[in-house]
Specification:
The structure is a homodimer of 285-residue chains.
Chain A (H helix, E strand, L loop, with lengths): L19 H5 L3 E2 L5 E5 L11 H13 L7 E9 L6 E12 L3 E10 L2 E11 L7 E2 L22 H4 L1 E7 L17 E7 L7 H7 L6 H6 L5 E10 L3 H7 L4 E6 L2 E3 L2 E9 L5 E11 L2
Antiparallel strand pairs in A: 1-2, 2-4, 3-6, 3-10, 4-5, 5-6, 8-9, 9-11, 10-14, 11-13, 12-13, 13-14
């Protein structure tokens, strides 16, 4: 069974059936209820695919076969091993299904090993009082900011349009003597443009370059070990966003003993906060 | 088998065998490898125990039976249902055990239902370059700040010494017309004092009063559905902290449609960042 049309996400890919993101998160379900997909070459990073598409595939599996109207509230993905090229399988298990909140556990397998796990909180959310405390920074519009050239670079970099407002990635030949700020502000969008949905929003939470590279100025072996996404956008917010770029603000608290953290906010039209995300990233030295 | 002395945490409770926190996280392991504990009456909240001790019990199970020197890097706890008084069981499963990083999944059961799940990233961390970007705010010392009176209040409140520097919880008879800041800064310590370890640090990440109460001024049915903790402290940092109060800084990004988030930092001696934490909290209306 192809899932593209069958799962209750807010947006299906009819209008752009060949967008590489839709191919990356395409899943089939076998008779035993197991999901199957393939590590996306179009989003390849140094070792294995970009973590954002892995997160999105895990979320897609968790969102399938759920009641109408259910939306993701939180997602934690643990990256256990680099994905190899080729097939993966995903097992989904409901830990608890309450009246309005559901807890789902997800595992991604290649061969006989787990390559990623996720826990997902889903809910039927209702209108309540609302209060957005955080405010989007004032920045120039995306079309006033230059795109990062990505032609000929890693495949996953070519799948996004990055427009750095502050804190661009400027590779150095040697590490900085004085470690730098971990902050970046950037406009980001799928390339080619694609209407935002919960899956691509989850993936966008992992597009921020490794903060350890920014503070040191040089690249070192590094990888996200765990990422948490909190979804604040409604299905209606995503529809209003469409394919317009989102603004990402990203920083870190600290780096020590092989791990650095990352915290980021993803902002949409009219300064609406769509998602917040944190991660812990391993670095070698 | 009693686990109090047998698991490789950085600190055992020999010096204070009867501290209520040690009782709350005490586990036994049966011959099938399943852990058993009891929902702690001493930390009871409105419905079920304080989520911090649940997090700590899950972390304790994940940390048991691990190689010498292993430390927690990240913990995500999903609160699936309120714990009932009485026994719980914990199942631990290693998703992946790499050379230096391990991924562990944990489930807490009562009867035939899952009441909480957790994923834990553990690592053998080595010395690397370090860079604490975030700085602890300037605040008066803890002994210059008044303690929140907690006598006769909910049991879990009586287990901590809260000293609010900014943003105290001031219950109102009616919700504020203009919603308020979600920020608080407070000194917190176990009551009676207890040397900090990874378990109590995890629990401290959940001591911040529900931010929805702060911004609205009134209490509503509410509860944490998921909490993520990133551990920045080393075992040596915890030893240096001892039983001194930690400083918590806490805020939120946004509240909408039944959920608000929370982000907090836990600071130790000399402004050392010990942990950062985020959560999504459900509220009724």
């Amino acid at each position: 069974m192809r899932l593209r049309q069958s799962i209750p996400l807010n947006r299906v890919a009819d209008e752009m059936p060949d967008h590489p993101f839709d191919t990356a998160v395409a899943l089939t379900r076998d008779d035993a209820g197991r999901y199957h997909g393939s590590a996306p070459q179009a989003y390849w990073n140094m070792a294995g695919p970009f973590g954002g598409t892995t997160a999105a595939a895990l979320l897609r599996a968790a969102l399938s076969d759920q009641p109408e109207g259910i939306e993701p509230v939180a997602l934690t993905v643990n990256y256990c091993a680099a994905l190899a090229p080729g097939a993966f399988a995903i097992d989904v298990r409901t830990a608890r299904a309450g009246k309005s909140v559901r807890h789902v556990g997800v595992e991604m397998w290649q061969g006989d090993g787990i390559v990623a796990t996720a826990s997902v909180v889903l809910a039927l959310r209702r209108d309540t009082w609302a209060h957005q405390v955080a405010t989007m920074p004032e920045v120039p519009p995306s079309d006033a900011v230059a795109s990062l050239p990505t032609d000929g670079r890693l495949p996953w970099l070519q799948r996004y349009d990055f427009r750095f407002v502050r804190g661009p990635w400027r590779p150095q030949t040697q590490a900085y003597d004085t470690l730098q700020s971990a902050h970046s502000t950037l406009w980001v969008s799928d390339k080619p443009p694609r209407p935002l949905d919960f899956l691509s929003l989850a993936a966008l939470c992992d597009v921020f370059f490794v903060r350890a590279f920014h503070v040191r100025g040089t690249m070192v072996p590094a990888g996200t070990v765990t990422m948490t996404v909190h979804f604040h956008a409604s299905t209606a917010d995503l529809a209003a966003q469409g394919a317009a770029p989102v603004l990402g603000t990203v920083d870190a608290h600290t780096f020590s003993r092989n791990f650095g953290d990352q915290i980021a906010q993803v902002w949409g039209r009219n300064g609406r906060l769509l998602a917040t995300t944190t991660q812990m990233t391993w670095f070698k030295q």
